[in-house]
Amino acid sequence: MNESHESEKENMETTTRPSSLADVANAKEQKVPGTRAMGTGLETRGIHAWFGNNHVLSDVNLDFAAGTVTALIGPSGCGKSTFIRTINRMHEFIPGAAMAGEVLLDGKDVYAPGTDVTKIRLQIGMVFQKPNPFPSMTIGENVLSGLKLSQQKVSNKDELLEECLERAGLWNEVKDRLGAHGGSLSGGQQQRLCIARALAVRPQVLLMDEPCSALDPGSTLRIEETIRHLSDTMTIIIVTHNMQQAARVSDYTAFFLSDGGPGQMIEASPTSEIFSRPRDKRTENYVTGRFG
Amino acid sequence: MSTIAPERPIPAPRELTTEPRFSDKVFRAVVTAGGLSSLIILGLIAIFLGYRGFEILRSEGLNFLTSSDWSISTDDAGNVTESHFGIAAMLVGTILCSIVAVAIALPVSVFSALFMNFYAPGWLKKILIAIIDMMAAFPSILYGIWGFLVLMPSVEYWAKLLNHYFGWLPFFKLHPYVVTRSPFVAGVVLAIMIIPIITSVSREIFSQAPLDRIQAAYALGATRWAMIKAVVIPHGKSGVIGGAMLGLGRAMGETVAVYTVLNIVFQINWQVLLGAGGNVASLIILKFGEASPYEIKALMAAGLVLFLLTLIVNAIAELIVRTTGKSGR
């Protein structure tokens, strides 16, 4: 966070708002998408979503290249969370929920008839707003819980455990107490535990629904570092209300908005562009803090 | 302004008081009366039973619990000449019938609670809840009559089957070969009676399983059954045990249905399939009608024992709920 603050200050004289967020976006290491990531990414085609008769999301078309981080921003109730929940088919758990359109993972529709939905969720992991470790399991069991839940067997459990906790940035803090219960960790540690848990089933895509909204700034920073590291090997889609966070972690940003009707995707661009040269007036108003 | 603060002594904590308003005092009195009344009623019943039964308990001593002899002889003037009171057979019968009942009712109830919460469509769930609540309100004599007329002939078939294949277990031995009116039949009737209570307690606790953990499990690629094992059962375990204990308590105290179905014999019988047994409550109803004042005292003593047995079971339930309760939450 310090680095980005400094770069912000340096540029303060030469540029005007809203480009300060763009500078934050430029300050991070720019990457070539898809270096080591699995798969070819994710595409959504004409996604609509309903809750009962309430049309909440209309015609969202977005592509997510493998190995990139995409931030979804927009005011509350614009359908961002609903959108990512259609991607891993969590949307359909809500009674009365319906959707239309296609979600293509490596070119295959996850809603195609005959698809095993549990396999889809293994490939598209999810981290929720509120940390939700399983309280009856230890830290170690929590990390490996996905394997048990999906009835998979691995030979090198200890290695996998260490690798996942390491990648989630939690290994050093918990390596001496893997047998302690998940609930004994702080909120930020619990969230990183949930990230480690999601990593253990080796997803290609990781969906994060406001993963830092319940956390303090220090924990937020740790998780943002984790996201940057993870994006080398997987595709990440993160919903956030924090535009600084969007600027800090994402390569691409999509702006969602509802004008009273169903939520729509207004604009999607490289993150530095959306904060410096938004194409749409409504995006500009939002990213400059004029509303929302 | 930089003066050195003098060393100040650490004060004792202040007593925190408040003067409640009149309306609050009235409400407090009403609520307290409500809360204490159940305690007072329970205490009065215990005192009544103890007072009436004390004479018998003292004259019989431990025999009251260990012998199975229930006889009373009077001379022509109606004075008691000799009496033996022992409820061992009835205690064994009480425990046997209740265990059979819980063993049958618990899995049925847990599965039906899981079905209602996680598998049944909304309309079916509503119908099932209504039916099961109705089962709980159903008069027990009707269960007893139905059990006697309808259930017993078919349960006999199952009893024979159990004996045929599991007769080598002491529990399922059958000697002499009398399969009607056995604790097993009574247990099945009791099971049907306690299914509603265990089901509704389980359903309630399962429905409180936290949604965020359920979603976490699904998001990790869990099947529904895997999710239930990982989230719902750990969360609901202690509540289900509590519900089972409530059911056990009801089964132990059940009178009319058992009286209708069971063959009451004053002889200790550990064979569930054998047509002999009884429980403490059915003993009381059997003898109460024609009992002399002296025998009624013995029945009161039996009532006191049943009362204490129920208390002990509930205390054990409380203990189990407390020790297993925390891990899943």
Protein described:
The complex is a heterodimer of chains A (292) and B (329). Chain A is an alpha/beta fold. Chain A has one domain (2-31, 43-287): Rossmann fold. In chain A, 37% of the residues lie in helices and 22% in strands. Chain A contains twelve helices and ten strands. In chain A, the strands form two sheets. A six-stranded mixed β-sheet of chain A has the order 6-7-8-3-9-10, sandwiched between helices. A four-stranded antiparallel β-sheet of chain A has the order 2-1-4-5, covered by helices on one side. In chain A, helix 9 links the parallel strand 7 and strand 8 (235-239). The longest helix of chain A has 14 residues, at 217-230. Chain A is globular and about 50 Å long. Residues 1-18 of chain A have low confidence and may be disordered. The radius of gyration of chain B is 26 Å and the shape is globular. The N and C termini of chain B lie far apart (54 Å). Chain B is mainly α and 329 residues long. Helices cover 70% and strands 3% of the residues of chain B. Chain B has helices at residues 22-60, 63-66, 88-119, 122-137, 140-166, 183-207, 211-219, 224-253, 256-261, 280-288, 293-325; strands at 70-74, 80-85. The longest helix of chain B has 39 residues, at 22-60. Chain B has a two-stranded antiparallel sheet with strand order 1-2. Chain B has one domain (88-325): Orthogonal Bundle (MetI-like fold). The mean pLDDT of chain B is 86. Classes of the chains: A alpha/beta (292), B mainly alpha (329).
Output the keywords:
heterodimer, A: 292 residues, alpha/beta, 6-stranded mixed beta sheet, 4-stranded antiparallel beta sheet, disordered N terminus, B: 329 residues, MetI-like fold, globular
